[in-house]
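Progress report, Aim 2. The chain analyzed during this reporting quarter is listed below.
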Amino acid sequence: MDSQPGFPVDAEEEFRSRFRSAPLTFLALDYDGTLAPFHADPMQARPLEGVVGILGELKRLPKLTLAIVSGRPVKEVVQLLGIRDIPVVGAHGFERLMPDGTLRTREPDAVQKEGLEKARQAALEEGWGDRLEIKVASVAFHTRGIPSAKAAAMEKRMRTRWTTLASPHDLECRPFNGGVEIRASGWHKGEALGELLKELPEEALCVYIGDDDTDEDAFKALGDRGMGIKVGDVGETTAAKAFLRDCQAVREFLRTVLRAFSAAGNGPAGARDGRRKGKERS
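Predicted structure tokens for the chain:
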């Protein structure tokens, strides 16, 4: 595989070695800030140019399995990606799109629901209702597009109010890139990823790529089964083993993975069949 900027030498050597020997590679990716640049309007955060096509080719690889793991609702991820046959985990793991197309949802308990409603009311009292996103197990407060100093003050105020609600209602308050969120405890991206890992062969190489604080749960869940890759500046405190600078670097990494499979004779099925027929005609 091509050298990847942001990969420590030991991490890159480990990845190359395990990639070559693994019978299956499992690649899970966050959406916002990983496949799609951030946008003040969340529904305008489109995948970086070329990403959808690359994912389409990757999902045809016989020795690779893809999944998207996002804090967004599953419906939004599917709508923005435009690909319906890639497994999607949404709402920080509280939603999962199953292979048969059904949506499996984990519901918060009654105490958690009460706390989430109080959190919503607290934001309304501050006059910030238009900045809220209501999900199945969380309430997110978005500040993207607001000047940074003002956004920081708003997030601090909202976090202060929500923190008082968290413990009595079995909730947790966590920052994300562009806001703060209060959500039900007991399930998160790491738990959801662990569930996906149980469905894979023990020898599979598992790679998770994400940019946010909520992705740290997933990096930790990998353990010795694979490698977490943080999207962002090299040197950030993280449980990931390597870095990719931004969405553009993620796109190039995905292209590198695709080229590596093709070079090993494990390219997309259609492409292999086409090459085989071409040889038969020559």
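The chain has nine helices and twelve strands. The chain has two domains: 9-106+187-277, 110-184. These observations will guide the mutagenesis work planned for the next reporting period.
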